[in-house]
Design a protein that fits this description.
single chain, 682 residues, Beta-Lactamase, 3 domains, five-stranded antiparallel β-sheet, 16 helices, membrane, EC 2.7.13.3, transmembrane, transmembrane helix
């Protein structure tokens, strides 16, 4: 194996070994942190439990002292208030005063306070001296301990019975792991309470007296770790002395519980390190293989790098290589054909000297200026005219500089593309666009002129027919004349409505429709439109209802345009709803702040294929609709455009035979403060 390859493989092995060493060190640090966290947990928990035990013992001691001095129980602990529930800290089970013969004088917390004879308390009562009795088990099965103190007059003793199961219940609530334990025990190693149900402890509370840790005088706490002789497993824990009392609290946790998360992370880290090592090894081997190949060709690639960038020969584009001073270095066949000379006659000469490329002195000067600009390091692009076979062609010319390793421009790459067809197409498109715009302006002007011209005679027709209907200058004679006059007036008004729609549409298309915006109450506009639509609704036997909340915010809009939109939607809803149907107008402010007004009917509905076109001018859902119901198909298109001017939208949801719902929405920035029922801002 070559020395260089051996060195590289050695470096690879060292890198992978470094990965494993770092992972091992991280795992060890994580294990130490987990152990330290477990020790802190035991220390903090033991401190809390020691303080709890100390407070219970202090309260019990104060209570016992008061009972011994007074020779009786405090009055507030007698009767219903006495017992375990009223005792201090919920740990004092019973308070009692007993004679030396065991007869109970007073008590609280006993069901039948007669005598303590036959119980572990009897000996303490007979002895008449201060003592700590317990732990002992009551007849009911609970574990107890008692503090005993002689009465001041020597006639008996006072006793405070502690509920040791209370400590056991408290310890069992601590989440330290199913195989860990909390112990409260005396100086002699007898266990008073513990967090687990251990058979041996329930039978003999002194089972572990020889192995439970005790502290020398002057030491209040100690953290422990190592092998537990009772189970043969590694444990950590903290033992604390209850200040002022011969008791200890020992929080002992199995190391497996502390390191459970670390064990899972350990295998994850091992797998990650193994995966990284494999990937690094594969990549390194691949890199070494490629490096061996590249080293043999690096010098040749450096020598030919600039030539590889100069590969330019293509079948359609005109391409060439120039020196920074404009001399031709290489050309492809289309470039030679454009110049009308072979490549041998062009190479080495200035590019702007050939009339095939620059047919006038002005074009030649521009070509030279572009080459000089590109030689300074700038990308140049421009269009020019050339003549090929007597035909003038438009060429898109680009000149790009190529730099060497020192950043100096050494080669200019010239490309020319024939864009004659594209330019001609753009010119045709511009001409067609101008013609279309002119036709559109002419159409709009024609519609506006004709609409104004038709309004004048229509106003006269409507006015005179109204005079005839009211017979202002005398009777008409035959009753048929009245019918004729009514038909004339209705036809004139219908034609005027159509002309107004056409005029509005022409203004909207021409962009000359200007909004007259102001703050308004949408509820009032809805009510006004409902009143105008009520007459045709009554005639058609259609029920018209409005559902508008009183606190709807103000709206910034063109009130006339809003009424026009609402009247159009209401007119369509009433028109296409059969007798006995219902039309409902509802308004609501949506969660995003927009105001939505919906006109919903129970009419004939619209087919799905017609929904896509009914918003376009002169389009209707069915070709037979204009014959049955009238109209030009401009109403919805005008409504859509008016809402667009407000920045809003119009949407229609319908199903044949199940009615139609048309909804207009105004953007949130057009809403103001809500209006209260009294008309003042809410």
């Amino acid at each position: 194996m070559p020395p260089v390859a051996a060195t590289r493989i050695g470096l690879l092995v060292a890198v992978i070994a470094g990965f494993w060493l770092v992972s091992y060190a991280d795992l060890e640090r994580a294990r130490d942190r987990a152990i330290q966290d477990g020790l802190r947990q035991t220390a903090n928990l033991s401190a809390l439990l020691v303080e709890d035990a100390r407070r219970v013992m202090v309260v019990a001691g104060y209570t016992l002292r008061g009972m011994a001095e007074a020779g009786r129980l405090p009055a507030y602990m007698l009767g219903e208030a006495a017992g375990a529930d009223a005792a201090p800290g919920m740990a004092v089970r019973t308070l009692l005063i007993a004679d030396r013969d065991g007869r109970v004088r007073q008590s609280t917390g006993l069901d039948s306070p007669v005598s303590v004879a036959g119980t572990p308390l009897a000996e303490a009562a007979t002895g008449g001296s201060a003592a700590f009795v317990g732990p002992y088990r009551e007849a009911g099965g609970g574990w107890r301990a008692a503090l005993v103190r002689p009465l001041a007059d020597g006639s008996g003793v006072a006793m405070v019975v502690l509920d040791l199961d209370r400590f056991a219940r408290l310890y069992a609530t601590q989440n330290i792991g199913s195989r860990s334990i909390i112990l409260l025990y005396r100086e002699d190693g007898v266990v008073l309470a513990h967090s687990l149900t251990v058979v041996r402890l329930d039978q003999d509370r002194a089972t572990f007296a020889a192995v439970l840790p005790r502290l020398p005088a002057g030491e209040s706490e100690r953290t422990l770790s190592g092998l537990d002789p009772t189970e043969g497993r590694e444990r950590i824990g903290t033992v604390r002395r209850v200040a002022g009392f011969p008791f200890y609290v020992y929080v002992r946790i199995r190391t497996e519980d502390v390191l459970s998360g670390w064990y899972a992370d350990r295998w994850k880290r091992i797998l990650e390190t193994a995966a990284v090592s494999v990937v690094v090894m594969l990549l390194a081997l691949l890199a070494l293989r490629q490096l061996g190949r590249l080293e043999t060709t690096t010098q040749a690639l450096r020598a030919s790098e600039r030539r590889s960038q100069a590969l330019f020969d293509s079948s359609f584009q005109i391409m060439g290589l120039l020196s920074p001073d404009g001399r031709v270095l290489a050309l492809n066949r289309p470039a030679c054909a454009l110049a009308g000379l072979p490549a041998e006659a062009l190479v080495g000469r200035r590019a702007w000297e050939f009339r095939g490329w620059a047919r006038t002195d002005e074009l030649a000067a521009g070509f030279r200026h572009s080459i000089e600009k590109a030689a300074s390091g700038r990308f140049v692009r421009y269009e020019t005219d050339v003549v090929t076979d007597g035909v003038t062609r438009v060429m898109d010319v680009t000149i790009k500089p190529v730099y060497d390793d020192r950043g100096i421009v050494t080669v200019l790459v010239v490309e020319a593309r024939d864009i004659t067809e594209r330019v001609e197409a753009a010119e045709r498109l511009a001409t067609a666009l101008d013609q279309a715009e002119a036709a559109n302006r002419a159409k709009s002007a024609f519609l506006a002129t004709m609409s104004h011209e038709l309004r004048t005679p229509l106003n006269a027709i409507i006015g005179f027919s109204d005079i005839m209907l009211h017979e202002l200058f005398g009777p008409l004679g035959s009753p048929r004349y009245r019918d004729y006059a009514r038909h004339v007036q209705n036809s004139g008004r219908h034609l005027l409505d159509l002309i107004n729609d056409v005029l509005d549409m022409s203004k909207l298309e021409a962009g000359r429709y200007t909004l007259d915006e102001s703050w308004m109450e949408p509820g009032e506009a809805i009510e006004t439109c409902r009143a105008l639509a009520a007459v045709p609704a009554d005639v058609g036997g259609v029920t018209l209802e409005v559902e508008c909340p009183p606190d709807l915010p103000n709206l910034l809009a063109d009130e006339r345009a809003l009424r026009q939109v609402l009247l159009n939607l209401l007119s369509n809803a009433v028109k296409f709803t059969p007798r006995g149907g219902r039309v409902t107008v509802s308004a609501v402010q949506e969660e995003d702040g927009r105001i939505a007004v919906t006109v919903r009917d129970t009419g004939i509905g619209i087919a799905a294929d017609a929904l896509a076109r009914i918003l376009e001018p002169f389009q209707q859902a069915d070709s037979s609709i204009s014959g049955r119901f009238g109209g030009t198909g401009l109403g919805l298109s005008i409504c859509r455009d008016l809402m667009a001017l407000h920045g809003g939208s119009l949407s229609i949801d319908s199903e044949p035979g199940h009615g139609t719902a048309a909804t207009i929405r105004f953007p949130a920035d057009r809403t103001g403060r809500p209006v209260a029922a009294d008309g003042l801002p809410a």
